[in-house]
Structure formats: C-alpha cells, structure tokens
Write a structure and sequence with these properties.
The structure holds two protein chains of two kinds.
Chain A (H helix, E strand, L loop, with lengths): L8 H27 L6 H9 L13 H10 L12 H11 L9 E5 L20 H6 L16 H5 L5 E3 L5 E3 L9 H5 L5 E5 L4 E3 L7 H7 L9 H5 L5 E4 L2 E4 L20 E4 L5 E2 L19
Antiparallel strand pairs in A: 1-4, 2-3, 5-8, 6-7, 8-9
Helix pairs in contact in A: 2-3
Chain B lengths: L1 H7 L15 H4 L4 E2 L5 E5 L9 E2 L6 E2 L4 E4 L8 E2 L4 E11 L2 E11 L20 H10 L12 H5 L9 E6 L8 H8 L1 H15 L3 E7 L3 H10 L6 E6 L8 H9 L14 E5 H13 L5 E8 L6 E6 L4 H7 L8 E4 L6 E2 L13 E5 L20 H5 L6 H9 L3 H8 L9 H5 L6 H18 L1
Helix pairs in contact in B: 5-7, 6-9, 12-13, 12-15, 13-15
Classes of the chains: A alpha+beta, B alpha/beta.
Chain lengths: 297, 450
C-alpha cells in the first residue's frame, strides 16, 4: 500500500509539472525529428563497421567514415583499404555489389642504409632527442647531411608500430604492419621515406649527392655515382641524377637483380618477397658491428 | 613636465633578460686583419632569397672584388671574389645550417698583393632612386647583423608606403659580440656616410642611432663625427637582451609597436644594422662589392680573442689555427651565443651574416646525453621573459604533442623571433626555442605541400 501522505497535494502538483514538461519536450522533439531530419544511408554504418577504424588515411580519404561514404557513392573501391583484413574487404564488395578493386599493397621505404657502423660522424649532437631537432642544429652529427639521423622520429609517429630501430640506429619497416599512411614520410626531416608498391623491388638506399670518393668518405655504403648499375640495366631504367642513381619506376617491369650485381658499395639493393634486402655480389662486405666514433674531419 | 620626463627617459622595452655579457675580452681590441687563408669557400646563397648564379668556371683566375656569381632576380645579391686566386671547384660544401650548399672554392694566390682592382666609382648624391637601388644591389650587401636580408630590398620603400624615420641598430645585444661596437668606434665616418646614403635612398626625414648604454663610448664617437646639419640623433637605450631585435628597439626608441606579422615599414620606419650601413658608406661611392667583414672571435680560454677583419669564405678551421686554438674545444658557435648556430663541421666558412665565432673549450654543464630536461613546473619565468609577450610554456607543451598548427593559429607562433629568452630562463632546461623552430619548419613544410 502506498502511504497516503506521499500523495499530498504538493506531490501531485510536482508530478503534474514534470508530466507537462515531458510532454511538451516530446512534442518539440517530434516536430524537430520531422522537419530537421537528415537522411543517412543506413549502409554507411554497415560498411563503416566492417572497416578497421584506424583512420590512417592510407586510402586517400580523411578517415574510415569518409571512406565508407565514398564507397557507397561509388567513388572508391573496397580494395583501396590496405589495412583491412582481405575477407572484410570482400564482404564489403559483396554487400555493396561492387568490384573489389585492387590496390597493390604499398609500404614505406627508407632511402638510407647508413647505420652508425658505416656512416661517419663529424660532430656529436647533444640536445633534444629528435631527428627534427638534430636536423635544426647544423644538420645533425652525421657527416652525410642527407642520411638518417637515427633518433626514431618515424618510429615515434608510426601509429601501427610498424617501425622499429635496429641495432645500428636505422629504422626498419615491418611490411606486414605498414599501412602506407605516410606519417613517417611527413615526419622525417631528411625526406628519406617514400611509399612504394611492394612490386618495386629495385631500390636505391641512399640520397648522398656527392661523387666518388667524396661520397664514400661520408658513408661506406653511399651511392658514389659510378654508373655501373646504369650500364647493366635496360635503357632508361636507371639514370644518374645529381650524382645519385635514380630508378624510373614506370619501367619497373624491366627491373631485375642484374642491376645490383656490380654495385661496389651495395647502395642499390633488391628487396625480395621474403622481406629481405639482397646486395650485389661485388658489394664490399661490412664487417664492423660497433658504432663509429666522432671524427672531426 | 611630461615632455621633460620623456627627454630623460631611458629607452626600454618590457620583458627580456640580462645575461652575462662577457664582452670585456674583446671590446677594447681594435679591428685587426687576419691573414688570408689558402683556400676560400664562398657559398652562392649567403643571403635570404634566391641564390646567386655562378659566372666563373673551374680553373678560372679571379681577381679580388670580381663578380663570381650574379644576382638571380630582385630578391638576390651578387657574390664577389673575396681574394685573388683560382677557382678550384664549384660544388656542394658544408654549411652552418646543415644542408650542403653550392659553393665556389677559390685557391688564394699567396704572392698577390690582394688589392681590390674592381670598382665602379660614382657620386651617390647625383643618382636617382632606382639607380641607387641597383647600385646597392651591385655591392652584394646583405644585412651584416645576422639575418643577411638583401640591403637593397630593405632600402627600397614598397609602393604606396613612405618612410619617415631610419633607425640604425647599434645595440649588439648578443653576449660576447663586439664587432659592431668596434665598427662604431673606429669607422664613425663610414657609418655616418652610410646613414646619409640610406636617408637619401629611403627618403626618410631623420635617422636615430640606437646604442645600448654599455657602449656609451661608441655613441660619443658618432656624435663627435656628426656634421651640424645632419638629421641624425644618437640615443642610448637600456642594456638588455634582446634590445637589438628591431621590434624591441623601435619600442625603446620611439615607443611604437610593429603590427603582428608586419614589417617596420608598415609604420614608416626602416631599420638597418650599423655594420651594414658602415660597409654601405664605404662601398657605395667606390662601387665595390662586399668581400670582407669584421668577426668577433672569442669564447672561453681564447688567448687571441679579438675583432678580426677577414675575407668572406674564410673556413672556421683556418681561423682557429691562426689564433692557436687547438683541437680540444667542446663547441664552436657561429654568431652569438643566444641566436647563433652550433657548428657541425669546422669546414664551414664565414659568410656575410656571420658576426661572431665563439669557441668554448671546457666541458660546461652539458652531459653525455645533453642537458637533463625536467618537466615544466609552470613557474611562468618564460612568460615573464618573452619580449613578444607570448606564452612559451603553453607552446612548448603543444610542441611536445606535435600540435604545431595549433601553436600557429592560437598562440602566435610566427611572432616568435627565436631570441632564446625562454630557453635561457627555463629552470627545467626545456629546449623551448628548439621546439618552436621545429614547429615553424614543420608548418612551413605543410604549407608548401598544400
């Protein structure tokens, strides 16, 4: 039994007000729902839920939601998401009844092989521990001013944990985890990262613009512009531009391991399907394991 | 009464810092010529703007004062051969900023008298404005205070604007540096001549020379050299860092502020450094090029510290050898200790914008991995020190999170001129200026991409 004293006149009035307020707000909401309603394709939610929600931007869109909208509008293909599990992309394609489309997997690649055991140092940088910070102070301590500074800005910025630093202070990209989002490309102060389809297996791991002995005096594995790779390759595949071997990837189908064989420093490499880096047979071996000291040369 | 008060008011600005000045070692040392180095490294881009284009070939003989690279457009200045010799190579050489830059390397003839044989004398008073601007550009002058902004661009008044005042910056607020001080003391006639030319070119009615009050002897020297009808006044301002920043100097001298993002010419003022105008006074009538400058070489335990006149392109290694500074230095800085650049290599040359060379020999407080950085304790010393009244603490926090765009849009990052006051006072050793320079560089890159 309800105690009669609870249902006093004041309580009834209060409940009445609450009821009236609730009803009036409900009416306003009902009107708003009728006149301010925005129709959204329910498929967007459906597709969005099948996307990885990494919001990495690798597909070229601002995020997964925008990508889902573009998919519905037919302006994108499910295959362009390289982060998603392939099965999910197939499911999206079937759900929307569109072509899967194929985006070849792209990965970030570092155009430098100058770890601290092969690249010489001209000064010791002691300051803010960041590549960008070191680059601001006279270009950092490395003698090669184009080379990797090894302070892991790229590993810090990678949201997928795809970049780790090896024992020689060079970033290593885990191709399975890399989504080609481009954050490392943006963060590197020396612009050493580039995004490439995995089919681009011929790679110049150097950016040094010096020639001959000058280049090798800065780093043991620098491209010294000797042109052997140019001569060994099909016409036009490799050219020497500003003392650096440059690969024309529009002719990528002509690329083979032949190009790297006679490289004296091993600056041009072949990245095989197992994720290993193959050097040419004439490349001088690197025996040193420890980091080089600072030389004031 | 207020006017009387104004008359005796010492020029000052709010905020700023008082570092130890360390100028005693070199302030009394007269300018001396340094020996010519056997090899000069002359970068083609020593100024802000388009790099000059080399017009000499490898193996070609060049005479002191000859043009070796010509200006590429209006925002550029030519480069002249600093010594007679032969061009041994043209290629990429180390620079203080980091990236290798295109440089002309000259092997200097030891037997040469090194007289300047090139010149195109003229009476600047007889030329009109455009011809004068061209003449100034032909001298290859760029601001000798440090920024190396082409002088002719600075002296040309943009269309629709007028200049009423020329401010001559003789503050030299950076610790250690005394080259401008010596120039004012020893070459007041050249300086005044340069000021007269600058007045003539800009059409300004008056000139004010602002000098920090620790260099009162320089002010006396300039006053003594003044002609009675010169519209030039000399005013002492408070000794404080960064008094020599043009925005601070204008506040101190005239009590005016430059609008954010604007230039002094927006309020009718042109600012030039004393070293620049002294060189202009010397070079413009003779029609010669800028081939040498005064550099203060000092630091800790530098026996032969002094102010040396040296050809542009002199490698730092040669200067250290000449002054008997041996290998055990910890740090070499080009410019002043607050805004200068720590050198990555001793093969970097002296350029038009180099005012000092500082050598620190003993291991100071820098440990193996640099200074230990502690978290911000929100003491607000940086806020009290910032002469631009920014909030360095907040910006430093944002920079740590890489929120660079927000620093620019909400916290006026671009008003920061990197004077270093905030880093200097920070008890936690937070490298604030370094953060801001990174932020600016990243923002510039992003804008370039967009």
């Amino acid at each position: 039994m309800i105690d009669a004293s609870i249902l006093s006149a004041d309580t009834v009035v209060a409940l009445g007000y609450m009821l009236a307020l609730g009803v009036s707000l409900a009416v306003i909401l009902a009107i708003a729902n009728r006149f301010l309603f925005v129709y959204e394709d329910p498929r967007i939610d459906e597709v969005d839920s099948a996307l990885p929600h990494a919001n990495c931007g690798a597909c070229g869109q601002a995020g997964c939601r925008v990508f889902a909208e573009k998919l519905i509008a037919g302006e994108a293909q499910p295959g362009q998401c390289t982060v998603n599990a392939p099965a999910n992309n197939v499911a999206i394609a079937e759900f929307l009844g569109v072509d899967l489309g194929n985006q070849e997997k792209r990965v970030a690649r570092l155009a430098c092989a100058g770890g601290n055991h092969v690249a010489y140092n001209r000064a010791k940088y002691a300051g803010l521990h960041s590549c960008r910070g070191a680059a601001m102070v006279g270009g950092g301590g490395k003698t090669c001013t184009w080379g990797c500074l090894g302070m892991a800005d790229c590993a810090d910025v990678c949201e997928f944990g795809a970049i780790s630093m090896d024992k020689n202070g060079l970033p290593v990209v885990n191709a399975d985890k890399c989504t080609a989002c481009g954050d490392c490309v943006d963060v590197c102060p020396k612009q050493l990262f580039e995004l490439h389809p995995v089919s681009h297996q011929l790679w110049v791991a150097c950016k040094n613009l010096h020639h001959g002995a000058e280049a090798e005096a800065e780093c043991e594995v620098a491209c010294n512009a000797c042109e052997r790779c140019v001569n060994d390759s099909p016409e036009g595949l490799i050219t020497i531009r500003d003392n650096l071997a440059t690969i024309d990837y529009s002719k990528n189908s002509l690329a083979s391991r032949v190009s790297i064989q006679r490289c004296p420093t091993g600056a041009i490499v072949w990245l095989n399907r197992k994720g290993e880096t193959e050097k040419g047979s004439k490349a001088k071996p690197v025996i040193r394991k420890k980091a080089l000291p600072v030389s004031h040369a | 009464m207020l006017a009387l008060f104004e008359k005796f008011r010492k020029g000052r600005f709010s905020h700023g810092i008082h570092p130890r000045y360390h100028k005693d070692a070199t302030r009394g040392k007269a300018i001396q010529r340094l020996a010519f180095p056997p090899r000069l490294i002359v970068p083609v881009a020593q100024h802000i703007g388009a790099p000059a284009k080399p017009v000499v070939n490898v193996g070609q003989e060049v005479l002191r004062g000859q043009i070796i690279a010509e200006a590429d457009g209006f925002m550029s200045v030519p480069v002249h051969a600093p010594a007679t010799g032969v061009v041994s190579s043209i290629g990429l050489m180390p620079s203080a900023a980091g990236p290798k830059v295109l440089s002309i390397v000259i092997d200097v003839y030891k037997a040469s008298s090194q007289y300047v044989l090139y010149g195109n004398p003229v009476e600047p008073e007889t030329l009109d404005h455009d011809e004068l601007i061209q003449r100034v550009q032909a001298t290859g002058m760029a601001g000798l205070g440090g920024a190396a902004f082409p002088s002719h661009v600075k002296l040309r008044i943009p269309h629709g604007k007028t200049a009423h005042t020329l401010v001559v910056n003789g503050c030299e607020c950076e610790p250690y540096l005394t080259c401008d001080h010596r120039v004012m003391l020893e070459q007041p006639q050249d300086l005044l001549q340069g000021i007269r030319y600058a007045l003539h070119i800009t059409g300004a009615k008056r000139a004010i020379v602002g000098i920090e009050d620790n260099k009162a002897d320089a002010a006396t020297a300039i006053k003594a050299a003044l002609k009675p009808d010169d519209p030039i006044t000399v005013k002492l301002v408070e000794t404080k860092y960064p008094q020599g920043a043009e925005k601070m100097l204008l506040k101190s001298l005239l009590g005016v502020e430059v609008p954010a993002g604007g230039l002094p010419i927006d309020i009718g003022i042109v600012v030039n450094n004393v070293g620049t105008l002294a060189q202009l006074g010397k070079l413009l009538p003779k029609g010669e090029g800028l081939i040498e400058r005064v550099v203060t070489v000092t630091g800790t335990n530098v026996a032969k510290a002094g102010n040396y006149l040296m050809p542009i392109g002199t490698p730092v290694r040669f200067i250290l050898e000449q002054l008997g500074i041996t290998a055990d230095h910890e740090k070499v800085i080009l410019g002043g200790p607050m805004m200068g650049m720590s050198l990555p290599s001793l093969d970097v040359p002296i350029t038009k914008g180099t005012s000092g060379l500082l050598v620190f020999q003993e291991r100071t407080f820098i440990g193996e991995q640099g200074e230990t950085v502690f978290p911000c304790i929100k003491c607000s010393r940086c806020v009290d020190a910032c002469p631009m009244h920014l909030n360095p603490a907040q910006m430093g926090w944002l920079a740590g999170k890489r929120h660079y765009a927000e620093m620019e849009s909400d916290f006026h990052l671009n008003s920061c001129f990197e004077c270093g006051c905030c880093s200097f006072v920070c008890p936690s050793n937070i490298p604030l200026v370094q953060y801001f320079r990174i932020a600016k560089a990243v923002n510039r890159e992003q804008k370039g991409k967009a």
